[in-house]
């Protein structure tokens, strides 16, 4: 049986005793009249007691102190904590001694009705006149009233985390608000929200390793999407000139402070606009978020302070390698010089990497972590930008940017490649990389090339990591603190038993 330790068995026995006494431990006739916060607001003016007023509130018992014929209890709902006073003489005959004292305990959810009064210490409280059990808790809460501190257990059992650490809910309320504000922002700009497939016949739209599943009815493999890009751009070919999607992506990669295999992306495409328009739109979005969330323009992130005053900084890719990483200007496109640079700094890397990948190694090691204030990195190498349009003046450069804040990538945007011949050739080159062992290289997507053949208007597109935006604006250093149920390693049975103890 799943509930088998002595404390759980004791609580199961109490639930059975409640049934024998005619009290359903899991009733379904409990309604909600008011929240604890509403009770406090409605009776904030009370200085003594007012038996002419009465209100019903529900909540989980977080603290219970018995004092003979009465008890002080703290109950908690989504809006906060309220102190209630339970007296034997205000309840039905025998209820206090036989039910409340013996069978109701911390963790149970109750529904109480009563009048407001103020204790000798000045705390607004509810004097109970009616008490009903709403739900009997079988599993006892952790002993520490002040919270659950085991970080692994908090992520695995988010429900318990929220019960014991109510402030955790604030992060997820902020997340919901951020998504809502973002959605309204794009709708107000005339964008159409769409939904595209989650299972793809070809893993495309980003350099990433996919999750693979099997479609039984069709008898074929499908890939959980790594990005919606190629489908969204098909819609632009079809005539939707401004579209966006907020949804899940899946990448079969490692997990760390900023990576979860299942994550949320905002991706949008804007016909007859360019990547410079996207950078301005990104600035406008962050201004909107900060204003609507009532945040300051300078926000802490760990031990850093991030300044969100616009306009944000813009640095060219090669300039960043020179000015931040310390590569000599004359060496920035010299493979041998870059290899020597990496070796001199004792960086582990593959010496057979092409120029753009060597530059990327240097960027990842020496540049990214130093981009604290919001910064757009522009003019990326075309060889690491397989879906971006070539720059007209320098064909080795893509009309692309990435957006960094607090040392991490937040967004990626570029002028879309709409030359079907060029796109087909780049896919072919990516396939060569894949054949040589690059698991993250793009697959060939002939149908997408066919779509481009009908004509994709000049378009700019961008993806923004919602989880990372939430991290920034709530000052959370781990992505697992802004995802309700993050991916976790399987727990061993013995470890689970130890945690139960």
Overview of the structural elements:
- Helix 9 (317-325) crosses helix 11 (355-367) and helix 12 (420-435) runs antiparallel to helix 13.
- The longest helix is centred in the middle third of the chain and has 21 residues, at 168-188.
- A hairpin with a 2-residue loop joins strand 12 and strand 13 (304-307).
- It is elongated and about 90 Å long.
- The two termini are 16 Å apart.
- Helices cover 33% and strands 24% of the residues.
- The protein has 2 domains: 6-141, OB fold (Dihydrolipoamide Acetyltransferase, E2P); 168-312 and 373-481, Bira Bifunctional Protein, Domain 2 (BirA Bifunctional Protein, domain 2).
- The protein has helices at residues 6-20, 36-42, 95-103, 151-156, 158-164, 168-188, 229-238, 275-292, 317-325, 335-344, 355-367, 420-435, 446-453, 466-474, 493-500; strands spanning 55-67, 70-77, 80-87, 109-118, 124-135, 192-193, 199-200, 212-215, 220-224, 242-250, 262-271, 298-301, 304-307, 313-316, 375-378, 400-405, 408-415, 459-465.
- It is α+β, with helices and mostly antiparallel strands.
- The chain has an 8-stranded mixed beta sheet with strand order 6-10-11-18-17-16-15-14, with helices on both faces. A 5-stranded mixed beta barrel has the order 1-2-3-5-4.
- The relative contact order is 0.09.
- It is built from 15 helices and 18 strands.
Largest sheet: 8 strands, mixed
User: Under the CATH scheme, which class of the largest domain?
Assistant: Alpha Beta
**Total number of helices:** 15
Strand order of the largest sheet: 6-10-11-18-17-16-15-14
pLDDT < 50 runs, ≥5 residues:
none
Helix content: 25-40%
Evaluate the radius of gyration.
29 Å
Shape annotation: elongated
Mean pLDDT: 94
Query: And the CATH topology of the largest domain?
Result: BirA Bifunctional Protein, domain 2
Termini gap: 16 Å
